[in-house]
Amino acid sequence: MPPAEDSRATRYTTLAPGPDFRHELEIKRSRFITVLRRVEDEAAARALIAELRREFHDARHHCSAFILGPDRTTQRSSDDGEPSGTAGIPMLEALNRRETANGVADLSDVCAVVVRYFGGILLGAGGLVRAYSDSVSQAADRAPWVTRQRLRLAEVPVGFAEVGKLENDVRSAGLHVVGTEYGAGHATLKVAFEDDAESLDRVRRTVLSLSAGTCEARPGGTEWVDLTPRA
After folding, report:
1. pTM, whole model, 2 decimals?
2. Of 42, 96, 117, 185, which shows the fewest CB atoms inside 10 Å?
3. In whole angstroms, what is the distance from residue 69 CA to residue 13 CA?
4. What confidence score (pLDDT) does residue 229 get?
């Protein structure tokens, strides 16, 4: 399920596409294995939790926290058998307060699961809070993130024989191509840009110039797009 179009937010930070990110921490012989996954809805988040229960079936706890949506309105956490408030909430707080490169705390569409193997030494309530918080914070510090932004789209109908060259030329001109659709008789190149008149004019002028006047960029709605990865 894609982000809601009526969201007040126009951008947020989420995990870069790819495999789950994993990070392990050992504290007083207990192993804390943190897994981060990009998710679009609660079903996907709960699917990750179920997968890790099967993979680490002999672990004592599979604690979790996730944040969903551009406005971060859906937030859930679970202590999974740890003392109340010592695992899920600290994990959720670690996700909520993690600032990105522009100094804003805006992580979303991410699920964190911390698998704990008990090492035989009790950590106490304060120790558990620190352990689960640090596990997620350290994983978040090392994971690859991207900015996800809602952009305006332009659609460019183009012949099959010309679409490859035009796409390369448009990318070389610094425009953001989000994909190409193939239909009956022609392809449609999709170009994303900032939602303002100046950006739309630039896209139109660039497409006309690169196609020698044979192709025209037409308004095509909006789409959430992954931008350049950030630290």
Report:
1. 0.83
2. 185
3. 11
4. 54
